[in-house]
């Protein structure tokens, strides 16, 4: 009987210790989440008024949270352009993080009618010029920055990234894929640069599934979710899930519509007050927000 009481007492002590340890772990995890949330809010608060005005349409806080982007990560951002997301990511990733910008392949750019020979030539130095520009967006305790172009990824970057983000950057790869395999090669580089278990986050103008495939080929800016998921899975990625964060039911684009008719571009309506008002009332495009993973 005494032995049984001793055993029960030991078991109770062990359960108490386990409970205390679990509570401590949960508390630490909650603290980390709070700190991450504060870091992201701080990064967002640093943005200029023009960028903040688009938060309600682009939802950067909810989007980055859905993708699981955290301080200290190495994140690749496809087609960073003028740095709308880069300026958020650089302070948010922090001093232990890294942002790697990646531009389209140099072979893709001549397919754009607006690209002059001078602009095409300038793309040859994009890695150095973008990196220099991104350095100017850094502050104290900010992430380091680097860059590459698709088809020319340095071998030293293979397996180094925690996440790759395609924010409205896939439609041009799709529209020109038949001319140079640009989507295929970009997804191959994406797979290579990611660590096992690394995430691919996609925000992309979404074509309704009942629209024609001929129209939803990227030329109008829109592509179908079913097409994109199939392409990602064919490239070896696992589909993790989706969010309605960036959906806009008012955007019912169909054949003849281009995404650039909507804000902020308002192509075709800048001199037509009535049409401009109609496009402004729709708002920015209907966008899918998808999450994929490189298998472990």
Short description:
Helix content is 42%, strand content 18%.
Can you offer a commentary on this structure?
The chain is an alpha/beta fold and 296 residues long. It folds into two domains: 1-45; 58-251 and 285-293, Rossmann fold (3-Layer(aba) Sandwich), CATH 3.40.50. Helix content is 42%, strand content 18%. It has helices at 2-45, 49-52, 55-58, 60-67, 86-93, 117-122, 126-135, 171-175, 177-180, 182-193, 225-234, 273-282, and strands spanning 74-78, 98-103, 144-149, 161-167, 194-207, 223-224, 238-243, 287-293. Strands 1, 2, 3, 4, 5, 6, 7 and 8 form an eight-stranded mixed β-sheet that branches. The mean pLDDT is 94.
What characteristics describe this protein?
8 strands, 18% strand, globular, eight-stranded mixed β-sheet, Rossmann fold, 12 helices, 296 residues, alpha/beta
| Shape label | globular
Share in β-strands:
15-25%
Order of helices and strands: HHHHEHEHHEEHHHEEHEHE
Q: How many domains, as an integer?
A: 2
Number of strands: 8
Report the biggest beta sheet as strand number plus sense, adding barrel if it closes: 8 strands, mixed
Per the CATH scheme, the topology name of the largest domain is: Rossmann fold
Radius of gyration: 23 Å
What would CATH call the architecture of the largest domain? 3-Layer(aba) Sandwich
Give the N-terminus to C-terminus distance in angstroms: 51 Å
The low-pLDDT segments are: none
Question: Mean of the pLDDT scores?
Answer: 94
The CATH class designation of the largest domain is Alpha Beta
State the fourth-level CATH superfamily of the largest domain: Vaccinia Virus protein VP39
Percent in helix: 40-55%
Would you tell me the structural class of the helices and strands? alpha/beta
Question: How many H/I helices?
Answer: 12
